[in-house]
Amino acid sequence: MSENSLxxxxxxxxxxxxxxxxxxxxxxxxxREADTAFSLFGRTFSTPVMTGTLSHLNTFARPGGMIELAExxxxxxxxxxxxxxxxxxAEKIARTGASVIEIIKPYKDRELIRHRLDLAADLGHLAAGxxxxxxxxxxxxxxxxxxxxxxxxxxxxxxxxCDYSRIPFIVKGILSERxxxxxxxxxxxxxxxxxxxxxxxxxxxxxxxxxxxSENEDFLKHPVPLFADGELRSGSDVxxxxxxxACAAGxxxxxxxxxKENGAESVADYIRKTTAELKKMMISTGxxxxxEIDGSMLYIK
Length: 301
Ligand SMILES: Cc1cc2nc3c(=O)[nH]c(=O)nc-3n(C[C@H](O)[C@H](O)[C@H](O)COP(=O)(O)O)c2cc1C
Hints:
The chain contains eleven helices and 14 strands. The chain is α/β, with parallel strands linked by helices. It has a single domain, classed as TIM Barrel, CATH 3.20.20. Helix 3 packs parallel to helix 4, helix 3 runs parallel beside helix 11 and helix 6 packs across helix 7. The chain starts with 10 loop residues before the first helix and ends with a strand. The structure holds flavin mononucleotide. The site of flavin mononucleotide has 21 residues, from loops.
């Protein structure tokens, strides 16, 4: 157990406990082979298991770690979510052939955000967007992150960015019905429900927020794809995320360990193993396709 997880407000531990409190009923009669194919923004993938939005893996994993993450995702037929990168690294990642969703930081230099949106479209990324949940540090001050000052995005700016982007625009860091409705009304094409690995103490678990958002009557009038991350580690975790309303789910920190172990190969192995576990859960619950998974299969312990 890490020192962090001993803090009562540790949102990673709270998220993990919530995931573990969700129980799954079985529906064996008539169960059949399950297909984990997943389509998003006109492309089809082998699996809804995606990489978490990661960055700086040269430091956190090993040199070349971001490229290995991309290669692993591509080999497993999965979407790669890419975090903060310099232009050159983003170009190298695109050359791996991975389908990338790029999450850009809310740089105080708004021109830089537009430049990265242009680059993402030019590189043929699947989508791009922004994370909204880590501008402020523990002291409540705006961060200077890896040399770049950050500043929170206003609603008007969000509207303009969604309008500006030539590819689908995603908002990452949604953890309330309020932010989900606002982001969707601004034109976001998808929402990543996440607390960014615990940036806020006592944050409600992403899967709980996901349920609230996916059942919100106003959201359902103009729904957009929902994604989730945060302590999702196995196929049954991904199954639960989908049952709570996500169309796909991101796995972050375990893939850092995978890269350290054996680079792209271990990333692909982790995604394939998780997908196989998901498939088994689908068969156990009588779901032939991902769209058949729903909340009626879940119970709270
Ligand atoms: C090394 C590292 C780098 C990250 N970089 C970014 C980033 O650039 N942008 C972002 O939105 N999230 C970033 N995240 C947060 C993850 O996308 C994710 O929200 C978080 O790790 C929770 O998922 P997990 O429990 O599966 O790790 C990063 C996380 C880690 C561990």
